[in-house]
Specification:
- This protein is mostly helical.
- The protein contains 21 helices and two strands.
- Strands 1-2 form a two-stranded parallel ribbon.
Length: about 525
């Protein structure tokens, strides 16, 4: 910062002192941007994940004032926050939907980096820490909804206990360390992991994972904040049922990011293989992708095998997630039988999907590349001038899909809001305000980008050229002037037609005024 001889006092001096101190910290690596052009939101997914992490930290700290991590008071304290504490219902909704948003953004960020090949530009360490950070994010969300100790939480805790117990050799030790000696200890231990241990691990991984400069795009931050508030406004989270050891639990499933593993476990196959080994192999394969991918190019179309593997993994996640949510509606069948998934049918489908998904994706990429090659060849040999549009066909398709998905979301949200009575309508309105401001900012920076483009030049008026007379005709015209017109009226035309004749000079030498004799000609000049 430049040194100034002028002494600053008051608020201005304090501001400069504070800014000069911040300028010497890591804060200089954080840039708040307001770009003058539209930037794809996919490039800001990592930044948005960090923003949601901050939102969760603030909202979680507010919830800590009233939550009691005791077995027989945990659910009651959450109910007190939900019903009695001022704005407690709003804070809890923001915290819950923010946790789901963080998991979703982390998964989208990982797959965007995967398909764009960003790990190939010496970012192997960033990629590996990012995958581990995604796993820790899921564990953080898992411990968060377990501390309520509802029936849903009891199911998740029972699954976690059985999975840790199935680990060879170290399983019982890990179970005792994570869960304690039973239900009397797990609430406090999960609470400690949720608010202290796992956030510390996440901050350490973020310090390694984030690049040197972290750019905060202001409209993107407002958009994700508005989306969380709107979701909390139209989809308010309920309390669920309090777990009672003497009451048989009802039909419930874990959160959406765990239903895939839950589907594998419902096949009643070995718990270690289905609940730990398969997910561990999946995570290890993604960690090793930078060392397996030997393609020189970055585009997903130029890396068909890697792209096909990613599409296949996405298909597996979506199918198993849906299967984990599905429960037979036949209430005449006992609950245990309704929860069991036929292992032969399940694993046959999963095994069949791998070659079909991989082969179909690989074939479509090859066909697309061949079609593009032929179109370029035809374009080079065909007419050069073709019709173009400002928005590419790919972006038009994305816009149509986004509009359709948003329309479906609005219909579901309106129906759900009518059922719940819009208890937290303030969240909905604040979210709408943030989204509107974000949209205005996008329009503003688009206008700023268009302002830099030079306007088209104005049309040049076409003037009719005057016909030029031949030399003899010009001489004859000079010799005779029409009556009623002075020489001064015809001077410009005479200068243009015959510039070598200076009529004014001749008149000056003779000392004859222009109005003396209008019929004076060149023959009179030659007489003595």
């Amino acid at each position: 910062m430049a040194v100034s001889l002028k002494r600053r006092t008051g608020a201005v001096g304090f501001f400069y002192w504070l800014w000069d101190g911040i300028d010497r910290t890591i804060f200089t690596g954080i840039k708040f941007s307001f770009p003058a052009r539209f930037v794809s939101p996919f490039g800001f997914l990592g930044m948005l994940t960090f923003i949601v992490f901050i939102i969760l930290g603030v909202s979680g700290a507010l919830l800590m004032f009233y939550y009691q991590p005791i077995l027989d008071r945990a659910w009651d304290s959450v109910q007190f926050i939900n019903d009695e504490v001022p704005f407690g219902f709003h804070i809890r909704n923001i915290h819950y939907h923010g946790s789901n948003a963080m998991v979703l953004l982390a998964v989208l960020h990982m797959y965007y980096q995967y398909f764009s090949g960003r790990y190939k530009i010496r970012n192997e360490v960033l990629w590996m820490t990012g995958v581990i950070l995604g796993v820790v994010t899921i564990l953080e969300a898992f411990t968060g909804y377990d501390v309520i100790f509802s029936e849903r939480a009891e199911l998740a805790i029972s699954i976690a206990a059985s999975l840790t117990t199935s680990i060879p050799v170290a399983g019982p030790t890990i179970r005792d360390a994570a869960l304690g000696s039973g239900f009397s200890d797990f609430v406090l231990r999960f609470y400690a992991q949720h608010v202290f241990l796992l956030p510390i691990v996440m901050l350490g991984l973020m310090a390694v994972h984030f690049p040197r400069f972290l750019v905060f795009d202001v409209p993107m931050v407002m958009a994700i904040g508005g989306a969380i508030l709107i979701t909390g406004g139209v989809f308010p989270i309920d309390m669920g049922f309090k777990f009672e050891p003497t009451v048989p639990p009802g039909v419930t499933v874990p959160e959406w990011y765990l239903t895939g593993i839950y589907a594998f476990m419902r096949t009643q196959y070995d718990k270690f293989v289905t609940g730990l080994l398969w997910p561990l192999l999946f995570i290890i394969s993604f960690v090793l992708i930078p060392f397996i991918d030997r393609y020189k190019k970055f585009s997903w179309r130029d890396r068909p095998i890697i792209t096909a593997f990613g599409i296949t993994s996405l298909a597996q996640i979506m199918v198993t997630t849906y299967w984990g949510f599905y429960i037979s509606p036949d209430i005449s069948v006992p609950l245990v039988e309704r929860l069991v998934i036929d292992p032969i049918f399940f694993y046959s489908t999963m095994i069949l999907m791998v070659p079909l998904g991989f082969g179909f994706t690989y074939m479509m990429i090859k066909l697309a590349n061949e079609a593009e090659r032929k179109s370029k060849l035809a374009k080079s040999t065909g007419p050069k001038k073709v019709a173009t549009i400002n928005l590419s066909e790919k972006w038009i398709n994305w816009v149509l899909v986004a509009l359709l998905a948003f329309q479906v979301f609005l219909n579901i949200a309106a129906y759900n809001a009518a059922l719940t009575g819009m208890k937290n309508v303030s969240l909905f309105f604040i979210g709408i305000i943030l989204l509107v401001f974000a949209a205005f900012f996008h329009v503003y920076r688009y206008a700023m980008s268009q302002q830099k483009n030079a306007p088209p030049p104005p049309p040049v008026p076409v003037q009719d050229e005057k016909p030029k007379l031949a030399e003899p005709a010009a001489s004859s015209e000079l010799s005779k002037l029409p009556e009623g017109k002075s020489d001064s009226e015809t001077k410009p035309e005479l200068k243009e037609l015959a510039p070598e004749v200076s009529v004014s000079k001749t008149q000056a030498d003779l000392g004859v005024g222009t109005n003396t004799n209008p019929n004076l000609g060149s023959n009179d000049i030659q007489k003595p």
